[in-house]
Amino acid sequence: MARLGDCIAMMDEGIGRVSQVIPDMPAAEARLTRLLLMVGHTFDEAVEQALKPSKINHSDFLTLMILYSRPDGSSTPGELCEYTSQGATNMTRIANALVKRGLITRGASEEDRRRVVIRITPAGRRFVQKLLPPLFPRVSAAFVGFSDTDKRSFSRLLRKLADNLDRLDEVPSPKDAP
Amino acid sequence: MARLGDCIAMMDEGIGRVSQVIPDMPAAEARLTRLLLMVGHTFDEAVEQALKPSKINHSDFLTLMILYSRPDGSSTPGELCEYTSQGATNMTRIANALVKRGLITRGASEEDRRRVVIRITPAGRRFVQKLLPPLFPRVSAAFVGFSDTDKRSFSRLLRKLADNLDRLDEVPSPKDAP
DNA sequence: CTACTTTACTTCACTGGTGAAATATGAGCT
DNA sequence: AGCTCATATTTCACCAGTGAAGTAAAGTAG
Questions:
Q1: Which residues does the UniProt record annotate as the domain HTH marR-type (chains A, B) (predicted)?
Q2: Nearest CA to B156 among A46, A11, A42, A157?
Q3: What confidence score (pLDDT) does residue B178 get?
Q4: Which residues on chain B are in Cβ contact (under 8 Å) with A82?
Q5: Mean pLDDT of the A46-57 span
Q6: What's the average pLDDT block by block, 10 residues per block, for chain B (178 residues)?
Q7: CATH number at residue A87
Q8: Do B157 and A141 touch (CB under 8 A)?
Q9: Domain residue limits at B124
Q10: CB 3.0 to 4.6 Å from A82: which of A33, A126, A131, B2, for a disulfide?
């Protein structure tokens, strides 16, 4: 219920105080990290909120959107796991839910019978097409006051961050040697 | 398991295809939103991962950090809820967990006996001081390649976004009139 | 001082997400 | 073929977070 601005203000002060006690803390980076996490979390909430009227949650929606955006409208649980950053366990639940609502179908693959093929149905497509437009005003509103340059900068910095995070996992594992 | 860069690439393509079917979609803003959510989520995971060796989760840690950063080392569940964006329900669980580990104490307020006063213990302070330093290299690593200007831009843009999100909630409620 | 409202927190029941083990198919080796 | 190892998905048991209702103490009005 507290406004995000207030949370940020208190975080700024908090980090300021902590970095006096622990001077070798990378305070600027810690601030940016907390900022990103807070804003990201609030965005998440906003999305969840916006989807609530349609009785669908964020991960179900994301899964459906990936299928919708595919030229052939189909995928497999494994692939969907990769792109939604969900575990296989949860993808089973998501698929169950979407099948129950008739938005996707689930069938056995013919080349590889371990696989399951998931496909968006016409009803699923209609659902997405009805769902999206009401979301647009809020998406735009989140970025009011962003110049084109701002948008480009933001995109660039987030992508650079993504790149760094990918490397972060690659490097520090002297545990893969058998 | 998939690298974030790959997820981003497929998101870019997906939005490209969708925006051809639904041309009035604010594609640039949608991309930024998805980017932010993906990077935010990955950051979250990274933090959770980094805290795992200390057997503490993100929200418990955040709660403890707020107490640590306070001049008097104390707060109340209600206040902690505000600043951690947690529900009161969950704060009860968090406090239970931290009390059980001896990192905080929980006692009744004397002015207002509805209130509960939560205070970090010396053991809690020691725990934080041991926990933080190993985190620093990763925090710094996430922002390698960021110039000072980049950091300032990123901070500015995130704060602007936070501001927009705060307004987003204020405006669109013609439901508060009784 | 009693009765009503509000505030602060807790309890309970449920949803969402995860790790470990189970199941089943495929692929490679001999 | 028969054996072993890897891959794809599901099931099960558990942790984390939420909404609604419960409890207890203030605040407020008649």
A1: 29-163
A2: A157
A3: 32
A4: 1-2, 6-7
A5: 96
A6: 91 97 97 98 96 96 98 97 97 98 95 95 98 96 97 98 89 41
A7: 1.10.10.10
A8: no
A9: 55-140
A10: B2
